[in-house]
Specification:
Helices cover 38% and strands 23% of the residues. The strands form 5 sheets. A 7-stranded mixed sheet has the order 7-6-5-8-9-11-10, sandwiched between helices. α8 runs antiparallel to α9. It is globular. The chain starts with a strand and ends in a 5-residue tail after the last helix. The model has no long low-confidence stretch (mean pLDDT 96). The protein binds S-adenosylmethionine (SAM) and zinc ion. S-adenosylmethionine (SAM) binds next to α2, β6 and α4.
């Protein structure tokens, strides 16, 4: 089956069924992820002009490596599966990109041996088994996809604890729990090598989390990154939340809003920002019309640019249901919060999600008159 994506052409085993490509080596549902990767690499190269080498650590069809090589990166594709290696090599050749290297290796060994400016981890499931090797030698940027959203957001609790050395909780803001559990584990992995991470772009999109971590290879930067870790207590009854920084948990025992005792405590999670607004604006500018997901990608960047840095989001529908009141239009709801002096922004987790610095009680006072 022939696939065209981002201006390159690939041959992948599999068939097109009802217009949808089906192949073990090519997932069309990750096209937005890959389009944003190319735009992010373009923005990053402007920002860090010595960045040249890119490791597509789990290449499969080689699509990421092919697209990065076509964009001028010095690419190495790696995969542990011989069929994937042959396919990646053939796809590079098909696009006249024979200069790119293809490695048939366990990429963990490769990452320990060789240095790369940018490493892109895109495994099946959790990326954590590959994180230490990536942070040990990478110079500038580690890009990570995690598709194991059930463990990340606490729905598969034991698996989440095992993979991320943290306690995830299944809350009403589950995609953001996943984002912050992942970033916490990655920051702690990097800190082992005296490396500080700054997430310059992160998004949770349909069943995966994607993050881009700019590295600063010095102990003080690692210490600074760890300062962003902490715990969040969430009330299951009234949806109140409270976050506190630090590695020693001092969780709430009683909800200060409703007096309830059903509090979920998660951590250590990343409580800091998960994107750099200016960088995201730059990424948005670098998405060309020719990318199939251009409109979606730009919309996502715009929401990320304006999203508040509060550590958890709310879902307006869940909140109103909890109050026993009908939901109104999101814009009106957010306008009511702003009129009462609070900050409020849409969040990128879905059309009814938002962030605010108002507590759940303050939100009720600010908005409930309009919800009758
Ligand atoms: C989700 S696919 C990659 C998809 C691809 N990056 C894309 O954008 O279409 C995961 C790939 O990782 C490879 N893989 C798994 N473990 C690996 C390892 N230890 N070293 C190298 N490759 C590995 C698998 O063979 C598989 O091809
Ligand atoms: Zn409560």
């Amino acid at each position: 089956m022939r696939v065209t994506e981002g201006g390159v052409e690939l041959e992948v085993p599999g068939e097109q069924t009802e217009g949808v490509e089906e192949s073990v080596f090519y997932n069309p549902r990750q096209e937005l992820n890959r389009d944003l990767t190319i735009a992010t690499l373009r923005a990053f190269r402007e920002h860090e002009d010595r960045a040249e080498s890119y490791l597509d650590a789990m290449a499969a069809s080689g699509i990421r490596g092919v697209r990065a090589a076509a964009d001028g990166w010095d690419v190495t594709c790696c995969d542990v599966e011989p069929d994937a290696v042959d396919l990646a090599r053939a796809n590079l050749e098909r696009n006249g990109l024979e200069d790119a290297r293809v490695e048939h290796r366990n990429v963990t060994a490769l990452m320990h041996e060789s240095m790369f400016d940018v490493i892109d981890l895109d495994p099946y499931g959790t990326p954590m088994p590959f994180a230490d090797a990536a942070f040990s030698r990478c110079r500038d940027l580690v890009c990570v996809t995690a598709t194991d959203t059930a463990p990340l957001c606490g729905a598969h609790f034991n698996s989440g604890v095992r993979s991320y050395s943290a306690v995830p909780q299944n809350t009403d803001y589950h995609p953001e729990m996943g984002v912050r559990i992942l970033l916490s584990a990655l920051a702690r992995s990097a800190a082992r090598f005296d490396v500080g991470v700054e997430p310059i772009l992160t998004h949770a999109t349909s069943h995966y989390v994607r993050t881009y971590l700019e590295l600063d290879r010095k102990p003080t930067a690692a210490d600074a990154a760890l300062e962003h870790l902490g715990y969040v207590s969430s009330c299951e009854d009234c949806l109140y939340r409270e976050a506190e920084h630090g590695l020693i948990a001092d969780p709430l025992e009683t909800c200060p809003n409703c007096g309830g005792k059903r509090l979920l405590v998660a951590g250590p999670i990343w409580l800091g920002p998960y994107r750099d607004r200016e960088f995201v604006a730059d990424v948005r500018e670098r998405i060309p019309d020719s990318f199939a997901t251009a409109e979606k990608g730009r919309e996502l960047c715009t929401t990320l640019e304006t999203e508040l840095d509060e550590p958890t989001h709310y879902d307006q529908h869940k909140l109103c249901k909890n109050w026993g009141l009908p939901a109104n239009a999101m814009d009106d709801f957010l306008a009511d919060l702003r009129e009462s002096g609070y900050e409020a922004s849409p969040a990128h987790y879905g059309g009814t999600t938002f962030k605010t610095d108002a507590s759940v009680g303050e939100m009720f006072d600010a908005t409930s008159d309009s919800l009758e």
